[in-house]
Design goal:
Elements: E1 3-4, E2 29-33, E3 38-40, E4 46-48, E5 51-54, E6 59-64, E7 67-68, E8 75-77, E9 83-85, E10 99-107, E11 110-113, E12 117-121, E13 123-129, E14 134-137, E15 142-145, E16 147-151, E17 155-160, E18 163-164, E19 172-175, E20 179-182, E21 191-198, E22 203-205, E23 209-214, E24 223-229, E25 234-237, E26 242-244, E27 247-251, E28 255-260, E29 271-274, E30 278-281, E31 290-297, E32 304-321, E33 326-329, E34 334-337, E35 339-343, E36 347-352, E37 355-356, E38 363-366, E39 369-372, E40 381-389, E41 392-403, E42 413-419, E43 425-430, E44 441-448, E45 457-462, E46 467-470, E47 478-487, E48 490-491, E49 498-501, E50 513-516, E51 523-527, H1 532-535, E52 541-548, E53 555-560, E54 565-568, E55 576-584, E56 596-599, E57 613-620, E58 623-629, E59 640-647, E60 656-659, E61 664-667, E62 675-683, E63 688-697, E64 716-722, E65 728-733, E66 743-751, E67 761-765, E68 769-772, E69 780-789, E70 792-793, E71 800-803, E72 814-822, E73 825-831, E74 842-849, H2 850-854, E75 859-864, E76 869-872, E77 880-889, E78 892-896, ...
Parallel strand pairs: 3-12, 14-23, 25-32, 33-41
Antiparallel strand pairs: 1-3, 2-5, 4-9, 6-7, 6-10, 8-9, 10-11, 10-12, 13-16, 15-20, 17-18, 17-21, 19-20, 21-22, 21-23, 24-27, 26-30, 28-31, 29-30, 31-32, 32-35, 34-39, 36-37, 36-40, 38-39, 40-41, 42-43, 43-46, 44-45, 44-47, 47-48, 47-49, 50-51, 50-63, 51-54, 52-53, 52-55, 55-56, 57-58, 58-61, ...
Length: 1142
């Protein structure tokens, strides 16, 4: 039995090409099918899919845990490239078939590696947590728990004194995580409890735990609510279910409610409450992550207690930026980019023809980029970006095509580098020794020599010089250089590398100060070390200068270069001090910072707040974020904060008043590349507290005005709506700008997590809406739109996401199996329907014994779409059960599987293993050693059944021929009585409609409906029939299908009754036997209905030929009598009961 645990591969609907543009270049090699995770039973067969498409010949190999799989009689490749294992082994070490499998496809263009697929053998371990004995008082809550590891996940049930407990009742709740909760415990709940864990591999029983129940004390005193089992922090994979438990006690019983700590609303569509307060989130998504709080509140009071837990949503990797295929000349440079998102953060690995790429002097990997310098012919290959985390992996591929050339020049010679300044180095070289006259240009390459994965820079210059000054270098840095010569047909090899360092320089600017006071007579001065770009060398010293605002005398202190703070003491209280700092390298001192002011606190015995710990960060080029917290030594209350800010050399603005609970604030609308001074103080009812001062500089902005030709703005207000399972409608707004040129748009569409950027779908339109069709069902897509006008293109709009509707299942669940695991319990298991892109929300299991199946009485079980097994319990011994399964989703129900048979042995003492009775894929057979109905057996059974039916028909025919039949027909307008030769039979006042059948001399069968208020026509056979004779043939052999003869009746359509209640027919036919033989069930409820229709059209056949039939009417005693006369004496006489004429 196999369980696929990942989604099936999606059909490709995108252009096949190596570039990200929608061109006609075809793929030289790609996968049609890739392997997926699978769980199988030991000794079962398994197929791992792998199909590659491309230019032949294609060689497919398989890797297990990175090592080539060796073929054998048990493990071998199929013709389509898939891997077949006839009997899965679970031995220890390398002999086990468990592990990670990948297939490697290769042709003349290169090799590609498939995604990883984990093969797991079904197993179930020992219990990690066993239920423990519990002692509770009557009316309180009892809780047991057990935990076990199993593959696939097991179903956990509980037993009380060896009897299975229901999963959910008014007082009992069983959580899928293995927790049993019993609310409002009663004395009858005392006993032994144990949990049962079952999956396809085995079944395990825990040890028994005893529940002891003591009488509750009288009278019961009020108790505050107390949470005895609160939610726990959990990590849940995407689309799985999360269970947060919460049980509380108290008197009166507390009410449990749930909320999110971030005040967001809980998703009511995916969330439900199980039992008395447990929260279950199904089909979990990233937005469901966060802290959830369970609150237990005493009814009618404000007494409550809270427990919280965090849900971390784990997501497999998905690519947000893909590598693009490139064509580069020899000795050129290729850059591939790959970015992925997921939880936890995916790790990026680069592959070349299926092998891992390692960094060297020519190939660099950094920030998810792959850079190949000085390309050589061997670099022509297929490259794959693999993003992987513990939830899975995703790959994207791109090809590097190397263009070869003849008569290339030799490499430049005698490279020399001389330092010019702290930011410039002069590079000089000699022309190539061969073909130097064909050189048209040189490219100078340089990068930092220290560190790993440094960015390489390139400058192209003409062929009229062999000297170049690189002047954008950082001071006090070591660099490496090389030069490449170019000719029209290609490039030379790279020259030898040369190393050189730049000189130190004075610091570009001074550090930014942060000032606070601990007392009225001191200032704590601190600063951050300068970054390398600003220090331009090693800082050797700092010079701190300070003075009061009313004095001109400046005090200076020189500090070593490794210091980042200094404490000034013995200052004047309630005085404004001005401070500034300068930094120095071995070259000299840099510029001093501007004066920063700070007022020392007043001398007072009053307790005011200490200075907060302030931190400033630039949010962007026009905004600053201030964050703070109270000093740990602060021991007084705080009523609020006052926050000041002003640009350097500008006057101070009025403060911003903030509440005491606030600890962050954002300043917006600032100017780029400006220095700002920020001051913060806390205050209380005594007065203002000590202040904290700090300066910060905003970074520079990249302005659109700085560009030569600004691009048009992107479309906005992109709106998406799913139309069907294969189409999505898009609408967007045109940006606000004026132009006389025509505007058109490109729509980009791809599934989220697409493995190759060259498969992205691009659609062109001149309208502001588009219906994207031919999409895959149940797939999440991302859309982006860009605008084109006058040969200019806008940036892509923000990405919007939309999912197509799923298709209703068109296939039943596959591989349905039924196994008897105990005397009265069976396990039915199945696999999802074998069709891609069909989501299953729940499965329906129907099962019934043979007798119940004949009566059409099925028992129904439903399981969530993530569960592929179910237990059938309380089966009766000696019975044959029929089982079938269907899959459903929100779009509809799928068909049922073939009906499986399961025999429950009447006596297990004979030595037969009850587990040997399980269904097969054939609807009437059994698999592997169970009884088979071969062709000879079926022939014998068929002949026997036919002979028996013939005998029954002959006997019935003889009985009918020897008897006298009495027939009834209700017509519109009858009296309240039905009359036959024996007198009144019953009242005709019923409102319930019935069907019954009758015939004339056994010639033709007619069905009719009757209702009260209609006349009843009776006719009589020429043969007489005693009341003691048996009922008619119609009553013996009537079946539901016989009613179809009256399907044209008006009333038959109104009721929808297709004759399923055969006992009604039998009772009506028994009327001909007289009152003595009338069954007791013939009561007012089964009589002639008050609303019957007129005679059906089949009634004209009652007496054979009715051509001469005439009706005569006479009025007698206020009742209309109809007599039927016929030209033939063989016609049957009719008696009519009609209502009183008006």
């Amino acid at each position: 039995m196999q369980y696929v645990t990942q989604s099936k591969p999606k059909r490709s609907l995108y252009r096949r090409g190596f570039t990200n543009a929608p061109d006609d270049v075809t793929y030289e090699l790609f996968f049609i099918k890739e392997p997926h995770d699978v769980t199988v039973m030991r000794k079962e067969a398994v197929i791992l899919d792998c199909q590659a498409h491309g230019e032949s010949p294609i060689d497919v190999r398989w890797l297990k845990n990175g090592v080539k799989v060796v073929e054998s009689e048990r493990v071998y490749h199929l013709s389509n490239g898939s891997l077949y294992i006839s009997e899965v082994e679970s031995r220890r070490g390398d002999k086990s078939d468990e592990g990670l499998y990948q297939c490697l496809a290769q042709n003349k263009y290169g090799a590609i590696l498939s995604q990883k697929a984990r093969l797991t053998i079904a197993s179930i371990s020992a219990f990690a947590i066993q239920p423990t004995p519990a002692v509770v008082t009557e009316g309180s809550v009892a809780r047991f728990s057990c935990k076990i590891s199993a593959h696939p996940p097991s179903i956990i049930t509980w037993e009380f004194n060896r009897v299975t407990l229901p999963l959910t009742t008014e007082r009992i709740t069983v959580l899928p995580s293995g927790v049993l909760q019993i609310h409002r415990v009663q004395r009858a709940d005392a006993g032994n409890y144990r949990c049962i864990s079952t999956n396809i591999a085995s079944r395990r029983r825990s040890t028994e735990a005893t529940l002891t129940v003591f009488p509750a004390p009288r009278p019961q005193l009020p108790q505050r609510p107390r949470i005895i089992a609160g939610p726990q922090n959990i990590s849940v994979s995407l689309h799985q279910s999360a269970i947060l438990e919460c049980i509380a006690t108290g008197n009166p019983q507390p009410i449990i409610s749930w909320s999110r700590a971030d005040s967001k609303s809980i998703d009511v569509y995916s969330t439900r409450v199980l039992g008395n307060g447990n929260l279950i989130i199904t089909d979990i998504k990233p937005q469901h992550g966060g802290v959830y709080m369970c609150r237990a509140t005493t009814p009618g009071t404000r007494n409550y207690t809270v427990a919280s837990a965090n849900i971390t949503v784990l997501a497999p990797p998905s690519l947000v930026e893909w590598p693009e295929s490139l064509t580069r000349p020899r000795a050129g440079t290729a850059r591939f980019v790959c970015r992925a998102e997921g939880a936890p953060t995916p790790q990026i690995t680069w592959l070349k023809n299926g092998d891992k790429v390692h960094s060297n002097g020519r190939i660099k990997m950094y920030n998810s980029k792959l850079v190949i310098n000085q390309i050589i012919p061997e670099d022509d290959a297929i490259y794959q970006c693999q993003a992987e985390n513990e939830q899975g992996s995703v790959l994207s591929m791109a090809r590097l095509i190397v263009v070869m050339s003849e008569d290339r020049p030799s490499a430049p010679r005698n490279i020399q580098a001389d330092t010019v300044s702290s930011s410039a180095i002069l590079l000089a070289w000699e022309r190539p020794q061969y073909n130097s006259d064909k050189v048209i240009a040189y490219s100078v390459h340089y990068m930092k020599a220290e560190g790993l994965n440094n960015e390489e820079y390139q400058v192209v210059i003409g062929n009229d010089t062999t000297r170049y000054i690189i002047d954008d270098l950082e001071p006090a840095r070591n660099y490496t250089f090389y030069v490449v010569a170019y000719m029209p047909m290609g490039a030379s090899r790279m020259s030898d590398n040369v190393f050189q360092h730049t000189l130190e320089d004075v610091p570009l600017r001074a550090p930014e100060l942060s000032l606070t006071s601990r007392s009225p007579m001191d200032i704590q001065v601190s600063w951050q070390p300068l970054p390398d770009k600003l220090s331009r060398g090693r800082v050797s010293a700092y010079r701190l200068s300070y003075r009061t605002s009313s004095e001109s005398t400046v005090s200076q202190i020189e500090l070593p270069g490794d210091k980042t703070q200094h404490f000034l003491e013995n200052l004047k209280p309630d005085t404004i001090y001005l401070l500034r700092i300068a930094a120095a390298t071995s070259v000299g001192w840099g510029e001093q910072s501007v004066w920063t002011s700070h007022r020392t606190p007043k001398t007072s015995s009053a307790l005011v707040p200490m200075a907060p710990e302030l931190r400033l960060e630039p949010l962007n080029c026009t905004a600053i974020v201030a964050r703070w917290q109270l000093a740990p030594r602060n021991s007084v209350s705080v009523q609020g904060y006052r926050l000041f800010h002003h640009e350097e050399s500008q006057s101070e603005r009025s403060p911003v008043q903030l509440r005491a609970l606030t600890n962050t604030y954002t300043f917006g609308g600032l100017d780029p590349r400006k220095k700002y001074h920020v001051k913060l103080l806390a205050y209380n009812f005594v007065g203002d507290g000590y202040q904290a001062d700090q300066t910060i500089s905003t970074p520079g902005c990249v302005s659109v005005r700085d560009r030569l030709v600004p691009p048009p703005p992107p479309p906005h207000n992109v709106y998406t709506k799913t139309n069907s399972s294969t189409s999505v409608f898009l609408h967007w707004g045109r940006p606000a700008f004026t132009s006389s040129h025509a505007v058109n748009y490109t729509v980009r569409c791809n599934p989220v997590g697409l493995q190759n950027a060259s498969l992205v779908l691009y659609l062109q339109t001149s309208e502001q809406n588009l219906l994207v069709t031919d999409l895959e069902p149940n797939t999440k897509y991302e859309f982006a739109i860009r605008l084109h006008i006058d040969q200019l293109s806008s940036p892509w709009s923000p990405v919007v996401y939309q999912s197509t509707f799923p298709d209703a299942p068109t296939l039943p669940p596959s591989n349905v199996k039924v196994t008897l695991i105990e005397e009265d319990t069976a396990l039915v298991s199945w696999k999802p329907p074998d069709e891609p892109n069909v989501a299953v929300t729940h499965y329906t299991v129907l099962y019934a014994s043979r007798n119940a199946w004949i009566a059409g009485e099925w028992q129904v079980l439903q399981r969530e779409g993530t569960i592929t097994m179910s237990l059938l319990e309380k089966l009766k011994p000696g019975q044959i059960y029929f089982v079938k399964v269907s899959a459903s989703n929100h779009m509809g129900d799928g068909p049922f599987s073939h009906t499986m048979e399961l025999t429950v042995q009447a006596d297990f003492s004979s030595g037969h293993d009850p587990r040997l009775s399980h269904g097969s894929t054939h609807p009437t057979g059994f698999s592997d050693g169970f009884y088979h109905l071969d062709q000879k057996s079926m022939t014998g059974i068929t002949v026997g059944v036919c002979i028996a039916l013939i005998c029954i028909i002959i006997c019935a025919f003889i009985i009918v021929c020897r008897g006298k039949n009495r027939y009834l027909l209700c017509l519109n307008g009858g009296t309240n009585l039905v009359i036959n030769s024996l007198g009144p039979v019953r009242s005709c006042t019923e409102k319930k409609e019935k069907w019954f059948s009758f015939s004339s001399n056994g010639k033709k069968h007619v069905s009719a409906s009757y209702q009260p208020g209609t006349p009843v026509l009776t006719f009589e056979d020429e043969l007489s029939m005693s009341p003691d004779q048996p009922i008619t043939l119609q009553a013996l052999l009537w079946r539901p299908g016989d009613s179809e003869g009256s399907s044209n009746s008006e009333e038959s359509h109104a009721t929808g009754d297709s004759g399923r209640y055969s006992h009604d027919e039998t009772e009506m036919t028994n009327l001909s036997s007289g009152t003595g033989s009338r069954p007791p069930s013939l009561t007012t409820e089964d009589g002639c209905s008050a609303g019957c229709s007129a005679a059906p059209k089949g009634s004209d056949e009652l007496g054979g030929s009715r051509a001469g039939l005439k009706l005569m009417e006479s009025v007698e005693s206020g009742c209309c009598h109809h007599e039927a006369k016929s030209g033939s004496e063989s016609e049957l006489p009719f008696q009519v009961c009609v209502p009183k004429c008006v």
